[in-house]
Write the structure tokens for this entry.
Amino acid sequence: MNAPVAPSSDASSASASEVEAAKLQIGGMTCATCQGRVEKVLRRRPGVVSAQVNLVTETATVAFQPDEIDEAALMAAVERAGYTAEPATRDEESEARRERERVREERRERRTLLASVALTLPLIAPMLVMPFGLHWALPGWAQLLLAAPVQVVIGARFYRAAWPALRAGTGNMDLLVALGTTAAFGLSLYVMATGGGHLYFEASASVITLVLLGKTLEARAKRGTTAAVRTLLELRPRRARVLRGEEMVDVPVDAVGRGETIVVKPGERVPVDGRILRGSSELDESLLTGEAMPVTRAEGEDVTGGSVNGSGLLHVEATRVGEDSTLSQIAELVEEAQASRAPIQRLVDRVAAVFVPTVIAIALVTLVAWLVMGAAPASAILAAVSVLVIACPCALGLATPTALVAGNGAAAQAGILIRDAEALEAAHAVDVIVFDKTGTLTEGKPEVTDVHVIDGSEDDLLSIAAAAQAGSEHPLGQAVIREADRRGLKRSTPSRFEALVGRGITATIDGRDVLIGSPRFISGEVSHDDALTDTITTHQSHGETVMLVAERGVGVLGLIAVADKLREGAAEAIGRLKRSGMTTIVLTGDNRRAAEAVGTEVGVDRVIAEVLPADKAATIEGLREEGRVVAMVGDGLNDAPALAAADVGVAMASGSDVAMMTAGITLMRPDPRLVAAAIDVSRATRRKVAQNLFWAFAYNVVGIPLAAFDLLSPSIAGAAMAMSSVSVVTNASLLRRWRPGDADA
């Protein structure tokens, strides 16, 4: 399905409405050079804004201008380059079809590998028994009969995959294998035709067999790294019970409409996002949010599709269905992050682009050098074959994306959603964490603790304040409304309402111009006496937030003090971050005394208070100008500019949609401890990337010279090449074991 996206910088002339995105499933890629080839083919098409191909997930994400090119033309371009392409749809039928094809392909590959092993073992058996003093070998014609099917039939895939790359003037892993095995096989045929000598059929057959074994192990490991998205998608039930009239109908979940009533029995998964109409129960949301304990939900509360119902029978009104559901959006976000390209990958891409031509050149130099030094032609050819066979662009191409995919998946299962690879990579270098206060370190649901009236009664003041706040969704305003409702107070409807971001509100109530806001804001509008100032100071020293209620032409009517409870684990989260060597800061628009009381309680290094939303972004920029790498953690609309200004924005999923859209990382449950976990998984992923790149380069830097100096046989070179990719992918898969809190273990 196509979706409008914002254009990238290289297509700034196109407006956002003129650019769409397509996700394609690509088949036939075998190494990093294939990935680069597909990207280059797509990017060269007129109308393509950007294209990113992921070797691990075997997908391409393409932004294009629909008036110049369409999805069919994109797929045709990929197919002309020698690969397969189809829309990467996530509907039930497509997923089931792809899974059936994957299972068939695995069975086919297993049979092919077993046949290759069976044909190759008799060829290498003499080498295996030689250390025991046994010297025997099959006749040449028998070796040919065994090796020919491996080379010509089983090895045909390498020729098929190498030809499109060769035709395009590039190379890939298949070309190296095809050249190396053909040289060994051809040399053996030549020796047979010219009257005898040692044959090298076992070299060509064993290389093909070992490469197939490596590919099989690699595919299995790669499937493990992409398990997170499959797990998320499998959470969604296939069918739902819908009440239509007096009848309960069992329908596919895709057929559920918004507003319909769903019946969820005990032990079943909730099929769609909704609101409970009747019943209450405990729901297990652990695979969505990472929260281990079930949460209680009752009438009027929201439930998320994919969560497991406990012991109660629920009637749920469907509110978000299909691709709008939370589960679908989470899966899409994880897929997008896994398909994105990390900055460090650019270096690898440049190396991969010249890798195969360089290896072929080294092999030719090796061949000529040995011949010039007087070596037998057979020995020179075998040394060149070993160079071709041991070189592995696959390991280079897989090093970064496998680690990023595995790290992103592990984070998702812990309730940490990472929007793109750039955010995941950047987070490892963060040395300053800036927290918003309300809704981030605190629960964001303050309660009224005191009402101080200058003239009139507390109920009158609360009634006016609650009426004025009726149009506000600010947590402080909601606290006033809840207190008024608790007291059973009646309130009028405002004829005018205006929210002044970061300062307060103004409203007209029964003809009266009412102002509610911080003492700083109200002092600029009306005056108040020193006695009230002392009261304000007393409340603020206790960590309470003070709102003044005033009327134009009359003055201050009184104050309302509210307090916000700290989130569970806030102090523990700050402690973890500080132990990791990071500076922690509270950045809030609240008054200094209240902010410092919270800062002292959780133990942050610094408190910056009474800051307007626009100034929050400027504060973040100031820290970055000092050379610090800054992460901003927030949940509100007013945090969005600061989240965007930070190197890494971290949003609470309990907050506003704007904050989550702006941030690079979203925490699926409002637990500050997940901030430390997000930094930790980023660092763990970065370590895996570094380890993978080291091993990928090490295999080639060490192996190619050894092969060139004739210190490795083609068979051993083939085994080393196969194992290089397997080791890289397996190492990345270890990230699946990561859990929040591992850094403290």
